[in-house]
Amino acid sequence: MSPLVYRMLAFGALAVLPLFQACSDEPAEANPSAGVPSEVAATGTSAEVIPAGLARVDFDVAGMDCGGCVLGTRAALRKLEGVQKADASYADATGQGTAWALYDPAKVSPERMMSAIRELGYTPTLVQAAN
Fold first, then answer.
1. For 77-80, which contacts have Cβ atoms below 8 Å and span 24 or more sequence positions?
2. The CATH number fitting domain 3-25+35-130, selected from 3.30.2270.10, 3.30.360.10, 1.10.3300.10, 3.30.70.100
3. pLDDT by residue (tens digit) across 28-69?
4. Cβ contacts of residue 10 below 8 Å, gap of 6+?
């Protein structure tokens, strides 16, 4: 193979790397609420700082099976007016997809977010909502 082909293959491998990273359970940001006035609410298994005026919602998402599913779900949630932050993940080992969002309850509801996820062809289940 020519050196050009090797370079193209290497670039292609690097281009898909973010898809695999999107499936990890690592947080999207190291400290998403630094410097923001907030209240503390228990969500899931740990306490999380939720900025004042926002709420958090968590979903289980059936039907996700790859990094592309994760990216599509994340984008669908983030484009909704009132969603401040959102993320999704997929665990290959368990076959379980999840998603969460920090949102302004005056602008968007968990039901609207579930509808956006359904439009992608997945089945969301509300796990927890906290203000």
1. 77/101, 77/113, 77/116, 77/117, 80/108, 80/112, 80/113, 80/116
2. 3.30.70.100
3. 333 333 333 333 333 444 456 888 999 999 999 999 999 999
4. none
